[in-house]
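W.,

You were right to be curious about this one. When I first looked at the sequence I had no strong expectations either way, so I just let the prediction run and decided to look at it fresh. Below is the sequence, 254 residues in total, followed by the output.
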Amino acid sequence: MSQILSLRHYSHDHIAHSHDHAQLVLGLSGDLDFEVAGLGSRVTRQRFAVVPAGAHHACASPQGSRCLVFDLDDEDSLLGMLGGHADTLRRLLERPAALTLNPAQDQLVHWLAASPLQDPVIARQGALLLLASLANADTPAAEPMRLPLAGLDAFIERHAGHPLQVADLARLAGLSAARFHARFLAETGQTPMDYVRLRRLQLGRELLCSSQLAVGEIAARVGYASQSAFTAALVRQFGCTPRQLRREARDKSR
């Protein structure tokens, strides 16, 4: 049996897995891009994600984040100690959701985070107190879960020099390629591949302005087969050649 409550730090490393118990991931600091069963959200202070038992979930935090994680692998025992609150909490744990804590609950979460969670009595009693608070308060409205765009951006940046397909991005969100394409278009107004193309060109422009790398090397780093193809794409998107972009960057730095 895992520890009921634990502090965890997340980074840009992409984590994706599932487990046979429900979990609550409660934000303490930073922003954590979080996806459960293909639905994306963001875990920040006063916000938490509900991960039902068996649900595939993935997360990444490009800037780093810190969370209190509540593993309910002893769910029946814990809920059995909450009397009339048990049914409310079972319903809460059945579906993926992104929810908001009220100020008192947020204070409780931070108090628990500062407590010796390795003490089984403190961890168990703290967990019960938190569950009772969630059940007893007005049920927070679930916000529509979004695609994990920051995590997708980080993935595109890491793999900009390699072929990328819609299916590669869809896997990060736990969706089929067709469903991901439709969701992405609805949320961003762009197709996934148009978005990838623009991110590559933005990365290329940043490298042109901040490094002395050869244009051909930059083209390869952002996924273009030739310098001429990269130059033509820059001109179409930004109206400038690599040389003009570098000249403008030098002029601005003087």
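Here's what jumped out at me. Residues 192-210 form the longest helix (19 residues). And, maybe more interesting for your project: The domain at 159-253 is CATH 1.10.10.60 (Arc Repressor Mutant, subunit A).

Coffee later to discuss?

I.
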